[in-house]
## 1
Amino acid sequence: MSLNRPVYEVVTITGDERGAGTDANVFVTLFGEYGITPKAHLASKSRTAFERAKTDVFRIRTHNVGPLKKIRIEHDNTGLSASWFLDRVVVTDVIRPHLRFYFPCNNWLSKTEGDCLCVRDLLGSMDPMDIPKYNKYVVSVITADVKGSGTDADVFINIFGEFGDTGERRLDNDKNNFEKGTEDKFTIEAPNLGKVRKITIGHNNKGSSAGWFLDKVVVDDMGNKIVYEFPVNRWFAIDEDDGKIQRDVLVGGSQPTGIVYNVQIVTGNIRGAGTNSKIHIVMHGSKGTRNSGQVFLEGGKFERDLTDIFNVEIAALLSPLSRVTIGHDNEGVSAGWYCEKVVVYCPFTGIEQTFPCSKWLDEKEGDGLIERELYEMVSLRQKRQKKHPWSLWIWTSDLAGAGSDADISFQVYGEKGKSDEIRLENKTDNFEQGQVDRFMVELPDLGKLTKFRIWHEKRNPFAGWHLSKATLLKTLTKEKYKFPCERWLDTNEDDNEVVRELPACGDVIAEPLPLLKYRVTVCTGTVGGSGTDASVFLNLIGDQGDTGDRQLVNCKNNINKFEKGNMDEFIVEAVALGQIRRVRIGHDGKGGGCGWFLDKVIVREEGQAEGAVEFPCNRWLDRNEDDGQIVRELVPFTDGQRLYNIDYHIAIKTGNIPGGSSDSNVFVKLYGEKGDTSKILLVVSANNLGNYFETGRIDIFAVETFDIGQINRLMIGHTNEGMRAGWFLDSVQILVPVHGRQYMFPSHRWLCKDEADGKTEVEIYPSEILDMEQLINYEVTVVTGNVMFAGTNARVFIQIFGDKGKTEVIRLESRSNNYERNTTEIFKMNAKDVGKVFKIRIGHDNSGIGSGWFLESVDVKHLIMALEDGELVVELLPEDAEELEVNTYEVCVFTGDMLGAGTDANVFINIYGENGDTGERYLKNSDNLNKFERAQEDVFIVTAIDLGPLKKLRIRHDNTKSHSSWYLDRVEIVDTKDDTTYYFPCNRWLAVDEDDGQIARELVPVDEAFMRQDEDEEGTAATLGLEQKSMSTTYTIKIKTGEKKYAGTDANVFAILFGENDDTGIINLKACKNYKNKFEQGMINEFTVEAVDLGDLEKLRIGHDNSGGSPGWFLDWVEIDAASQGQRLRFPCGRWLDKGEDDGALVRDLYPAELQTELYMPFVPYEIKIYTSDVFCAGTDADVFIVLYGRKGVCTQQKHLCVNKRERRLYFERGAEDMFIVELEDVGEVIEKIRIGHDNKGTNPGWHLDRVEIRRQLRKGKGSETTIFPCECWLAKSEDDGETVRELVPSDIITQKLLRDGTLKTTETEVEDALEIHTYTVSVRTGDTSGAGTDANVFLTIYGDLGDTGERKLAKSESNKNKFERGAVDKFSIEAVDLGQVFKIHIRHDNSMMGADWYLDQVEVLDLETEEVYMFLCERWLSTKKEDRRIERNFFVKFIDENVV
């Protein structure tokens, strides 16, 4: 609590009577002019508070309530001697001590003494001699003269007036009260309440005959001389009327405009958490002035780990609540109770609040309280749809057999929409002949009501029901609607229907809508096996509402319905629907031959000759055919029929909890801003795991329906059938590709009759809505020709090209047997909007027996906005589009001239131009018999629709043969139409075990002059890697396998990167840079991928081929670093890719998490050539690194040139020239110096370096600039000065520029003002204290305004053999390029060896060239045990002394 809150001092004086003291917990509530404080516990440190004749002082912090009017003092009746005789209470405002109030009591607070009250309201004044005046209220309670009307339970009353309430008072005197037909009188003393507004009266349901029928209550306010009447005339009984045992009654008994609060009480999951005590709750309004009074929560179980739900009706709007008080009466065998939390939802405001408790309410546990004040955790507050309370009265007719024992359901329609289907449980004897049943129902804001549908589902003898009428009254506005019916809902009466639609009548309705009969003709197809025996239902959806799902039972013209070729007629009676826009039709999938081929549905108004609307379907409703759906929404268009519905992909995760799986049928209903779907049974899953809703698995269902707009909530539940019906629902995810949205609905709860709150359906609101790539619907019609063997069993793929780009390659398949001879098949797919379609590519993968395919025609349609009226219309492809020209390309492939360069694998190429690409083509027929041999040129002919100027190509092999590794020198492509040659240099391996392990490369064309230059210089390998690198993007991919058991995989993993312009195609993740055994549990594997012009990355597809011993893989996340774009993206996954886990998928699409995206300065490519000298033993196997410096100390990170041991062995041999292309930070126009060194490891680490050449692309114009750094000395521990790190400065710069005429101009200039090499003498003084010296390795970095030395190991002390001993000074020499003014050092040790702790006194740096001395005072420990436990520190220069020589 904040400390600035006012403090009140509360002094209690216990009376001097026998047994006056109490052991109970005492509470006080202060009532002031500005409000009421929460109930405060008067807790004392000493155990002896409230002893006889004792004064106790307490301080309570709470909000300021102004001058006090009264206090409420009470105890919880716990402990051995609970009775308390209170003399008086004095309350002082500590901040304003002149405000002191005296509250005389002089009375017992006891269940057994005096008037048996444990709660008293005391009036006070500032004069201790004042005797406050209390008001007397005489309460007369009249019990009705009805059989069984009396009660033995304890009756309580609370009187509410304008100045507050009396609190709960038990009505008790020494006679037998509340007997049938009697009047009982009680006197209540309380402070003046002013005008009385309402009473709350009820009982606690104790005793054998607790049910009570109360006639009325009369309250006589003696002080104000007013009598108030409260007519009630209702049962207070669990098993009568509405089951309530407590009611709010307004003065005059006018029907209270009750506001319903849905209260959930969650008992904790702790041993002994449950209780048999009576639980009560008080809800406090936002100002704290209004409250619900004490409400008894009857009928709950309050068992361990269960949720009890209560609907509490209060005649006051309290939501949002400021707090709740929860407690119990401490009776029963195990009275102690552990309450987890309380959740209160008020439909009227739509606010759901959570009040965490997680404490015992038990006199033997913790602080011993049995009542607590709970405050809301605001972060858990939820806004839901607002609903208003209505009274629904239903009159059953007074005819023989009119009553029904069925459960009745209803649904209400208004101008603004419709309610949910609401079930009226038939628990007590509702719907009996000649009876009126009253229900409280919550309805959303529907505007003016238009119709009411009421039905039951029982088609058995006793279910028949004759409904006279229904009325709905909005309790707050008294708006009233009547729905006359006077008809049977009975399978043997009237028209044999059990559903009725009733138009709304009443004062607000000028003209009720007419009731119409619609004649529906259902035409079953003539395909083999078309008919069905399943139960068919239909819903007509019009402008003014819908009919709801109607079972098609009573056929007018056929006894055997839905047979092949039948046209079955049905009558659907409904309130006028306006223009009928859609028909939803389906079946329940039950029975042997339940698959059904529906031709069409025709709907017309009975008695109207014209105006019939035809809804074509022409599809299966069968789990094993087409898309497996057994419910369809039909639209009245023949053209592009499938484009008008939207796909909702619903992924349902069952919790990983024992017994969490369910055999029941699950249904879902989605609510959107444009409407809601019907209840959809999820019976056909898209990922087909066989057994649905199993523990820990995810089932995915595709639902096709009209566009409901943004989803704001969903209802999900199950039918509670089957052996194990109970179900633990973890979460629901809904992906809507056409909107580009993904919705997350967390649930994590039981839907089970026997668990938690016993609900089997629940409404969930989305916790987050993610933006995904937005797709559109395409309808693809494929006609297979009518010739011998025309059909295929292969997998068919399609790709669509338009003026805005191209779609992904999409597989066309369904559950039926596709591509048979002479068939027309229609597929719907979601893909990127490519704008105006100008070509498609369709093909197959040659799999299966009889894969050859004769394709007649393909038709692609999608919806566009029509210009005239903004309607969606089907865009057809122009038949007469000007023919795209076909062009021939000559592809020359040059294999390199090195050992093992040739390949026997199959090679594929895809050529990209400004007008699209050729698609992947197999390079089959070359002019050589044996293709792709070492140093050979192979020529292939590729014909394709003209691509325009070429941009790039992708070339790969399939790695299938034993000698698959291939060194590709270059590809040249001649465009035969305009005779242009494009040069694509490669000079790299396409091999799993060479270079970066990729067997696919993307190449970009370079100018001819660059190619020619290489041929002029003898013997140099092509140096065009830099140009290739600068036009492509290198992606470093890090893949983290999860930490779970069995998370790793032996399968072959692949990935595809999708950018806004293009994708990489399949990349086999074979060559991991850091581990040989990949994708092991908890491991992070790193891979390199190069691609050209993908644009910004939008998604990543990653998967595996399910091969190997344990292929299942748990992928945690993928990180992709694109250095040349300066961004690092994180793609979270956290899911299995495993046939037996999760949703069974082996491939996942991942999207970047925006919050985890890192942006930095983009890197640029450098080509670094390293010349090892031609002297004895010049080569090295050590790990070589390099750092580049620009002006003002701008430098790159330290870059290791070799990735692994194999490369370290290959490179830096005697006399070799090694080239590396690396991406590093941009250091600016000039490279001032470089630092190069190695880690002195490996067999022969000593290295003699001749020179380093660094080439970069020119910032302006085409060309490059090479800077030469001579070295010509050893980097070796055993040679020269023993240094393994050297700093080099440039000597010459060579520039090559491409001129306008296509020639290269080369210029060479000497570097004039290169920095000099300086020697720095470093003196390190170790402190003179105990244990100051160290045996660890010490490292130093010196920083100046022109750069730094990089980290150097202080290896060889010139002054001492044993370095860094206590009190000693050690001298070291460091050679480095001129640092300018030195300003700081960074010093650390590696904590190795036994005595690693080091006390460093000071460091002195002397620049021998300028004779400047820099002093660094340290005087700190570098230790993991002492001071702040750091072993690395920065120190800044203390002073610079000019006079030291």
Note: The chain has a mean pLDDT of 87.
## 2
Amino acid sequence: MELEAEAEAEKMTVASWLCSPSEESAELWDWNRTWYTDMPSFTPCFQNTVLLWIPCIYLWVLFPFYYFYLQRNSRGYIRMSAVFKSKMVLAFALLLLCFSSIFFTLWQAVQGVPQARGLILSPAVQIVTLILVVFLTQTERLKGVQSSGLLLVYWLLCFFPAAISFSSKIQHALEGGFRKDAFHHVSSYIYFTLILSELVLCCFTDQPPFFSQDTAENPCPEGRASFVSRITFWWLLGLLWKGYRQPLRTEDLWSLTRENTSKEIVTQIEEAWRKNCAVKQVAESVQFRSEQAREECEEASLLLRTEYCPSKPLLKAFWSLFRPSFLLGTLSLVIGDIFLFLIPTTLSLFLGFIADPEAPSWKGYFYAMLLFLLACLQTLFEQRYMYVCLALGVKLKTAVTGLVYRKILVLSAAAKKTTTVGEIVNLVSVDVQKLTDLIVYVNGTWLAPVRIIICFVFLCQLLGPPALTSVAVFLFLLPLNFVITKKRSHFQEVQMQHKDRRAKLISSALGNIKTLKLHGWEEHFTGQALHVRMQELQALKTSQFLFSASLASFHSSTFLIAFVMFAVYTLADEHNVLNAQKAFVSLALVNILNTAHSFLPFSINAVMQARVSLKRLATFLCLEELEPPTVECDSSDCMKGYVVVRNGTFSWGRKDPPCLKRINLAIPQGSLCAVVGPVGAGKSSLLSALLGELWRTEGCVLLKGPVAFVPQEPWVQNASVEGNVVFGQGMDRRWYERVISACALQTDLEGFPAGSQTEIGEKGMNLSGGQKQRLALARAVYRKAAVYLLDDPLSAVDAQVGQHIFEQVIGPSGLLKDKTRLLVTNSVHLLPQVDSVIVMADGQISEVGCSQELVQREGALAEFLRTHSTKEKEGQALQGAGAGHEMIPPGHVDHQGKFAEREGGGYRPSKGGMTALKTGGEREFTGRVKSSVYLSYLRAGGSLFWAYIVFLFICQQVASFSRSYWLSLWANDPVCNGTQQHTQLRVGVFFSLGVAQALSKFGSAAAVFLAGAVASRRLFARLLRDIVRSPMMFFEQTPTGDLLNRFSKEMDSVDSIIPDKLKSLLGFVFHLLEIYIAIIVATPIAVVAIVPLTALYAAFQSFFVATSCQLKRLEARSRSSVYSHIAETFQGSSGIRAYRDQQRFVWQSDVKVDENQRAAFPAVVADRWLATNLELLGNGLVLTAAVLAVASKPHLSPGMVGFSVSCALQVTGILNWMVRSLAETENNMVSVERVRDYLETPKEGPWTLRSNFLTENWPSEGAIEFKGYSLRYRPDLELSLKNVNIKIYEQEKIGICGRTGAGKSSLAMGLLRLVEAAEGEILIDGINIAQLGLHDLRRKISIIPQDPVLFPDSLRRNLDPLNEHSDEDIWIALERVLLKSFVWDLPERLAYECSEGGGNLSVGQQQLFCLARALLRKTRILVLDEATAAVDPKTDLQIQSTIKTQFRECTVLTIAHRVKTVMDCDRILVMENGQVAEFDTPETLIGQKGLFYRMAEESGLV
């Protein structure tokens, strides 16, 4: 009692010091005046002091932090605008008013009128604060702040005391008190007006600042938006309105601010990554992982074994970059949680008011308004957190994509073998999404336990010790969810493994689709892909069943905790009464507890998934890199030549055995040096060593000046012909024309649809092998480099074109005559025309010198020439691609040899249709997703199944409504003698209804996920079938990135996101119906608010979805471009490095990523706009329900009011999530739309047909007849083959030759029906092939293409994919192609894994494996398309011998650029302009002295 008296005395002392004893109440606070009254008001002293000080304290507390922020963030300065001047005038007016108030108070004190000290102190505090306001306003103008949130909140806080004082003065004036204190009345009116004016002005934005660093044409409106617009996201309205009126285009999207561009973000993350991780590439770990891969699982990917990667440094790098924004977002979430817990406290007070019949009505309205304000503040802070996190997710995706892309450009050859394009695409799509989810959910790992503890504390205060029983239930459910989450995480990792296997398989198959079609392997590949897909979906279904159990546990936890608490509370003591206040406030707290309980496993699951993805990403970023270029040669070496190697020893990886040993060479400026040697001698490896592609273990390398490189397998960009030649250099039209002419491309350009502007398909799919090679050569020549490294650029062209190129480009009188040239070749007739010859053998230089000198030595070159002379009388044929030992192709090389030498035939359009062939353009969808897309998805899952799902949801909501209504009846039970009747019955029924709801919840969720898995399986199979059944022209016009996007990102949405969103949507729809019924039952008049509010929600949703869907489509299209560019760069990385063009490609990647983020960021903002504004509207429903409850208080029981208001509190979230789920469902249905995109594209004929005339051993003879056969590649092009009439007899060997573009390969295309006939027919053994299934035909014809193709699989599966032959048969085939000893020496022999594109084998070896594959097929018809172009003469001779002996009973068609190759054939077919020019024996044709004679003459054969 003494302490209370002392405290009261101290309080009175403070009040007497601040307040005037002459006032009506000299107290600072009076409860009877403020709370226990029908007309509440504050004491004058409180109004004049504390209320005025609150905004001042707020501003002074935040000023240091805000000022520090302003000093660190300057956007330029703003000129003195009308808004700024008005703010300053009003501020000075307020200063003047405060000064006048002080002077008036002092004057009255001098006059002897007692004055409170607070009347002097408060204006003084306000004066100091207003000076600070003026200072901040000026500082913000100088720093370019157009709208100040800090000052807006300050003026808002000032407005409330001003309004209270204003209303108090008005009331006092009405009572006649104006004349007694006119000055304070007038000053109060003026003060209120000035404060209101300042508040209104703060809602407007100032002019844009000068010297701003963001000078974009279409800047993001966020920077120009007012504070109110920013927190409610209404600055998005312009884009929403535009998207609602018409489909959005890329031009409508905002430009990125400087800090959000790839250049800025990736630069920062690179610095952070280098700082947190030593730039040390642990090659040992790469080797260890590669060996472990072969031992553990031949299908597993390196990116899945992440034990050795430094993920912590990568996490630290991300943290250092994104920490400030993330911490600010976390602060918003914490503040939002404070308001979240104030809501049930206020609800308790509100229900207490309802239960108190004597309480004045203003308290009810006050509580209703407080509920509304708290809900609004909680919404704003929570949505700010979500916005910050999702915007950070967009930045994180930019950072990860930039890091991955830059890593691709520095990957070593050894590291490149360990990954594929599909895995890299998964890194920048699936894995980056997991990291984005981590940003949103990671705070749940610590905040959810805090929420849980707070809920338990509140429940104990409400129900006492019985509330502690909820802890036992929670402790039971928590480990259960942890176990479920851990199990689910395991299955998700298994799913990711299968997903990577599928991505690798599909990426390889799509890159080599032509080989699949030529051999009729589509069905086998489809079966493989579907098998892996079934394993993936099995893991997914198990994971989703566990997720359903987790959801059922989550939803039933609300019931279980409430049931246990209420049962123990009421049954433990019969005097414990469960009234409405205790029941529904407890439920509100349990709902918060349940949300935290569910958020925790989600958060843990997100952390675990992100941990796996972070490790995968770190593993990739830590792969071995190429050595940085260094020059260690001394000055004497440098003087010896432009290309110098001293004592060089090189290997493909740091721990790999050397592939080049003791290399010493010096090539002087301007000389032409040839490199010759057998297959595997190391010719191409030598060029790779000079380019820095190999690991240098000893010696030094020096190249003076810029380098140009022409690889053995040309790399072509998906760009125009001109873009491929110019390759980022400035256009010099005269030099360009000279290069085109010298490289024999002029005729090709004349036949292209748009000449130099014709767009080339991805990987050059619409070009022949010769065209691609000449295009790559033209790119090098146009470069005007000092050193040229040419890896047999003449192998893919015919003799005449090859001679032209050598004379005009490479030779002594060519365009490169003054350049230093290193030419890898097997064309020995060129050797006399070169300055020096380097002879390679077993990875060493065996001889160096001029050709005559070396021949006289009778050394390695002489032996090489003798081998060659046994095949040719003189070195006339420009043949042989010097297939280097272990040549690593530039990335994931397609190796699709283009049969169609279509420079003229396949690419010659009609005269009037000279339009460019567009590749890479996707079908463009606009507007909302059509209902047919939804129906197709639902049918894929099973129509009856969905009907059953709807029934389960109805059962669930009926049980839920019955349980809540039963609780309201329980709370209204009358109390007799301090007890309630029928308590045991209430408890029993309550428990039964809760169990029924939990079972229905599990069943409905599991059923939705199961239907989604079924739909996903069918849609994937349909997509795969639609794509593999498409003709070759489809793949020539569709970038692989588009297809990979369908199989990765879009299928990921179909697999996981759409079922989850549909489950949520159905749950929210039925829950909403339950809530509407509950509110209407309690307060029927609420329907007046519910109907328009629902209509407003529908309008918001319609307004939002049109824009959101289009943003989703734009983002998906731009994402495909990013993936295509990554794949293209991965394939051509060695060429890009050779030209030192990495920076340009990095810039291109950054531009594409920025274009993608331009669509991704508005989509994030649109989601936040919808969520924020829907929740604010829902909060209006809370206000309506509470106000109506106050107005109807005499007619309502507390239980029904609690039922109504608690439901209204739920409807905010339910309506919001329902509309968002509907929008997200429609957004993700775009993925189904895109997956079905290829449903209506043209398809090939059926694979198999039942034919009565087709026998098992067909064709038994192999006779082929073309009858009036014509062919065109597209309807808008001219005929490539015209009226071909020839007959080929059984076992006949036919040579097919002709100029480039004559139509040679078009015959093979027609024979295998890769292109269907325009007219006429082809008969094999008298049967029209058009009447056969494609596989029935193609499996009966063997073909060896010009460019060999091997899949990333074992050698055995490459040779015998269908597993039709024994190991003995395979060894016999390998022996016949001279590869038995090579394979026998490999570590796993037939189980040896080929890297993607066969990169760990030389091109010559790859060609021999393709020949072995043909030997195993044992068909009656064999087509050779320059099959020996990639081998040396000795091996060529042995291959020809193998073909003659092993295929002597077959009909053999040999397509050749070189006449010598077909001189031993029975007859020669000479093609010209798509027609048969000559067809007879070689002797007869030479005797006729026609076209074939001229070709033989040019080759030196006659």
Note: The longest strand covers residues 658-667.
